[in-house]
TrEMBL record:
InterPro entries noted in UniProt: Inosine/uridine_hydrolase_dom, IUNH, Ribo_hydro-like
Recorded GO MF terms: purine nucleosidase activity
Gene Ontology cellular-component terms listed: cytosol
Domain of life: Bacteria
Domain Inosine/uridine-preferring nucleoside hydrolase: 3-297
Keyword Cell cycle: no
Gene Ontology BP term (one): purine nucleoside catabolic process
Name listed for the protein in its UniProt record: Nucleoside hydrolase
Hydrolase in keyword set: yes
Alphabetized PANTHER family for the sequence: INOSINE-URIDINE PREFERRING NUCLEOSIDE HYDROLASE (PTHR12304), URIDINE NUCLEOSIDASE (PTHR12304:SF4)
Coiled coil ranges: none
Key words of the record: Glycosidase, Hydrolase
Length: 306
């Protein structure tokens, strides 16, 4: 299975990269980075460091630094000043490729028509720019799995909006309306995929250097989660998008038209699911509405401790 992961590491992004790289049968063509949780230079350095830690044989290609028309809004309060919590890794410049991330996406999809699964777990700026630059990718990409949105639940930045869509709603609107085969893995399901302290202890004990690294990141992430969300664990948002790309049977989906709010005073980045067809528009997104969280967490733990 050929995958491109579009990321903004970010602690859960780093875990998503680890999950993809450790899963048998996955061919990670490369990572592309976007400004999101942190500015682009940091998300790129972090992605490169994680690739090096995992001994990957692919590179990271830096993409867009900020949203289509807005200022970048970052999330250091959740991921820490470096973006990787308490994890401190050596620089890995040799893992940074010298092609623009948007061109990497376009070229790989054109070179492997109908074979590439594009998993986007940051703001959708790179994906929107790829579509704007070469419309043919819409039909040539196998599918696009997006971690983003909160269709039936509240948001995590505002009551209305989830972070990735909040940061660049105009890009999200372009991608959602593109006609590509899209599955949305939003807070509706990711807030059920929680990694607890017990899981983290097991990862540190049995997961070798990757488990230790995940432990250093999630110790930090868990503290922020307790303050911010009052949940009993930290959400595996981005890893769940990888999980869904690998195994659709983990989730139940519903195809509806999803509108993205770009103009609202309080609702910027809201993802509005038109369940009853009030807008009279063709359904455009497979929205994940239920997840088998036990099966997902078990397979996450198994992959990262084996
Ligand atoms: C999303 O926002 C980011 O902070 C995470 O990396 C994830 O992609 C969750 O809302
Ligand atoms: Ca992310």
């Amino acid at each position: 299975m050929k995958i491109i992961l579009d990321v903004d590491p970010g602690i859960d992004d780093a875990m998503a990269i680890a999950l993809a790289l450790k899963t048998k049968g996955v061919q990670l063509l490369g990572l592309t980075t976007v400004g999101g949780n942190l500015p682009l230079n940091k998300t790129t350095d972090n992605a490169a460091k994680i690739l090096k830690l995992l001994g990957a044989n692919c590179k990271v290609y830096p993409g867009m630094a900020g949203p289509l028309i807005r200022e970048l809004h970052t999330a250091e309060q959740i991921h820490g000043p470096t973006g990787l919590g308490y994890l401190d890794l050596p620089a890995a410049q040799e893992y940074i490729g010298n092609k623009h991330g948007v061109d990497f996406i376009i070229d790989e999809i054109n070179n492997n028509p109908h074979e590439v699964t594009l998993i986007a777990v940051g703001p959708l700026t790179n994906v929107a720019n790829a579509i704007k630059k070469d419309k043919s990718v819409i039909d040539k990409v196998k599918e696009i799995i997006i971690m983003g949105g909160a269709v039936y639940t509240g948001g995590n930045v505002t009551p209305a909006a989830e972070f990735n869509i909040y940061v660049d709603p105009e890009s999200a609107q372009i991608v959602f309306n593109s006609g590509a085969n899209i599955t949305l893995v939003g807070l509706d399901v990711t807030l059920q995929a929680l990694l607890t302290e017990e899981h983290i202890e097991i990862l540190k004990e049995k997961g070798g250097k990757i488990g230790q690294a995940i432990g250093s990141m999630t110790d930090f992430y868990l503290e922020r989660y307790k303050d911010h969300n009052k949940l009993k664990g930290c959400a595996l948002h981005d890893p769940l998008a990888v999980g869904v790309a690998l195994d659709k049977s983990l989730v139940k989906t519903q195809k509806v038209f999803v509108a993205v709010e770009t103009k609202g005073e309080f609702t910027r980045g809201e993802t509005l699911g038109d369940v009853h067809g009030r807008f009279g528009k063709e359904p455009n997104i497979n929205v994940c509405i239920e997840v088998d969280e036990k099966r997902f967490i078990n397979s996450f733990m198994e992959t990262l401790t084996s």
